[in-house]
Amino acid sequence: MECCDLTKNNIGSYKFLAEPFHVDCTGRLTLSIVGNHLLNCAGMHAAKRGFGITDLNEHHYTWVLSRLAMEFECLPMQYDEFSIDTWVEAVYSLFTDRNFSIHNAKGEAIGYARSVWAMIDLDSRRPVNLVTMHEGHINDYICTERECPIEKPGRVKVMATEPVYSFSAKYSDIDINGHVNSVRYIEHILDLLPLEKHKEERVKRFEIAYITESYFGDQLDMYMDEEADRNAYQVEIRKHFTGEVVCRAKMVFVKKGT
Amino acid sequence: MECCDLTKNNIGSYKFLAEPFHVDCTGRLTLSIVGNHLLNCAGMHAAKRGFGITDLNEHHYTWVLSRLAMEFECLPMQYDEFSIDTWVEAVYSLFTDRNFSIHNAKGEAIGYARSVWAMIDLDSRRPVNLVTMHEGHINDYICTERECPIEKPGRVKVMATEPVYSFSAKYSDIDINGHVNSVRYIEHILDLLPLEKHKEERVKRFEIAYITESYFGDQLDMYMDEEADRNAYQVEIRKHFTGEVVCRAKMVFVKKGT
Question: Which fold has domain B165-255?
Answer without folding.
Answer: Thiol Ester Dehydrase; Chain A (3.10.129)
